[in-house]
Amino acid sequence: MFETLSDKLSRAMKSLRGQSRLSEKNIEEALRDVRMALLEADVHVQVAKAFLQRVKEKALGVEVLNGLNPAQQFIDVVYQELTAIMGGQAPERPLDMAAKPPTVVMMVGLQGSGKTTTCGKLAKYLKKNGHSPLLVPADVYRPAAIEQLHVVAKDAGVPSFRTDSMEPVAICKAAMQEAVLKGWDVVILDTAGRLHLDDVLMNELAAIKDACGPTEILFVADAMTGQDAVRSAGAFHEKLATTGVVLTKADGDTRGGAAFSIRHITGTAIKFVGSGERLDDFERFHPDRMAQRILGMGDVLTLIEHAKDTIDEKDAERMAQRLVKNQFTLEDMRNQFQQIQKMGSMQKIIGMLPGMGKMKEQIESVATDKRIKHLEAILNSMTPRERQNHNLLDARRKRRIAAGCGRPVHEINQLLKQYLQMKKMMSQMNNPGFMKRMQAMQG
Ligand code: GDP
User: Fold this and answer.
1) Whose CA is nearest to atom 27 of ligand 1?
2) Which atom in ligand 1 lies closest to the alpha carbon of residue 281?
3) Can you identify the CATH homologous superfamily of domain 3-85?
4) What pTM was computed for the model?
């Protein structure tokens, strides 16, 4: 998501390099590129307009601060405004909880948006955060949907409500009673979806809302459907006063316009983002971090949070220290590959690393998921000393390693090239100039 936007924005920033100050003229020029970038990313015209206006006003008004150059100042303004338009600072806790349990979370959305999957993701997320959720199948029109929810619940390690009733309101109310009896503190209702907006469905959802008094009503929006997702989010909000949005399929080939526009157009915040079919492909939405990611600053915080969940904490700490000291070795790279396979898709992780936006293509050609196993085999065929010091790898050793792991020598060379690039990128993180930029962006 947002790759083109990121690329275009960094081009717009470049046009300001070498300028001595921000003026109406050079701001206009940079904004022309930004406007193109936004429209190409399928951002709602109205949102793009409001955004550009605010950036322009702010950029013209900025004082020359702490020795930042015009390009950096402009990035700072764009960063602030990107964050603001996507909803500003995310609240400490993503969901409100009812004063008296169970808290009812009602999931609504069109068919195929990923609602059932998201119920499972949310249940797993809540369980990890100390809650005991109950999943409730209230989509009585598709028997497959009910079965699917039971499967998802099992996957997530949470209970699901079973009943013979085929009446959505009755099912939800009975589930709430069972939650009180058994001490489940959150009840997640998987409601029916249709292919299109539909009054009968809306009335059914309104009846469930009246009967169950949900604390949260989350609209599940398929990011791939772009502006349609924004329109549906608006329609559901109008009818049901939804309290938030979960944006799914952010891993797909989407241009990101929905993520950008939903808050501004519907007034409801994106609370979570789904980025894959697995239950762990789910994270909170932080506008500020997303803005950093769009601007190619990566999203180190989300990566660290994700890593904390899946990776051995000691390993992660050791890695972080090595990064800070710029001691990244082939041994670390091998560990990373092993961890990466635990964490999910390589591309996703690369996208979260700062400075990787531009490097992503090069890396994709070397380290797509299916090739990681080959790379790991190469690294495994090296001696520990070689993994600690890549300079030991001469032509003779490379041939031996190639024979040992059954991969051609040029793959070994590619891997080394990649390693050196990663090392260089990481050393940039230690560069005072980079840190300054990072601090500037964090305001
Ligand atoms: P529902 O009809 O709204 O309940 O949608 P489902 O939960 O059945 O999901 C529809 C399809 O989208 C399924 O194939 C899911 O695996 C897939 N899906 C759901 N969320 C995501 C996501 O975040 N990323 C991707 N790539 N696929 C997803």
Assistant:
1) 277
2) 23
3) SRP54, nucleotide-binding domain (1.20.120.140)
4) 0.70
